[in-house]
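Quick one - first record:
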Amino acid sequence: MNNSESAAYNAGQAKGQTQEKSNQMMDKAKDTYQSAKESCQEAGNQMQAKAQGAVDASAAYNAGQAKGQTQEKSNQMMDKAKDTYQSAKESCQEAGNQMQAKAQGVVDAVKDTVNKQN
């Protein structure tokens, strides 16, 4: 083999080694890209789950607030109903007492009339 052939052989060897090294680097880059892509997808899924948890917590908080407000309004309405009942009860008792007093007055008047006629 002469110098020219030897140089061509060595150049071919170098080219083959360079191509092999290039292929190895491309494979490594593809693996790194795939790993990074999967990591990003996982991080995105975790963030989405956390965001959904925050939305759920917010909804639960709002539902609790609404329940509390409804309970408070219900209590206020019950208090008002009790007050109205108590007032009506007292008015009825007062009216009953007045009617009883008037009836007693009529009974007394009738007795007086009967006694005066005897």
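second record:
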Amino acid sequence: MHYLQQHGIHVYLTDAIARMNEERPANATQYLHDYLDAVASGSNVLHRDFSYIQATPRNRLAFAAQLGKLLASSPEEAVKAADCFHLVELLGNGFPFEVVKRAAEVTEYVMGLREPRPASEPGVPLPKTSLVLFFRICFYYMEFMAVSEPCLVAAFEEHYKTEADRPVASHYSLNELQSIKHRYLALLNSDIAKLPVG
């Protein structure tokens, strides 16, 4: 049973049977074949509810890939989080803005665009490839990111404070990244130790 759960098979079979029962296709075997083909290609997540999209790691990665394809079709090099979210809404139903917002915030911190803005002020345009990369990470590790994001942000903020006399760079040296990583892990371990057990 663990093997089936690990690969999300129970999610797909349960969903396929429920949809088959609802749609009553003439050829049930072909319907199941087409459903599994869609899972294999990643198109199974299109226009589905968030509960289904986030149900398996494969679905999460497939949705991020679909978003990447949609953004790649745009001639713009950069996109704001709000505009990215509108595209997410076109791909799936009930997707929380928090995932896109978190991806945009992490992208901003990594790029050094860290100045706080009023909540009413729209975000800055971010490179599409970077935003999609961090969207994929934030969505795939959504539950982990909810715990770890404040630690990551704090680690970058601490780095910026110690390097206040230096201009912000778009790339970090290996020493800088190691310093940020060590601070991040220390903060994360501290926060994890505070979580209730069981």
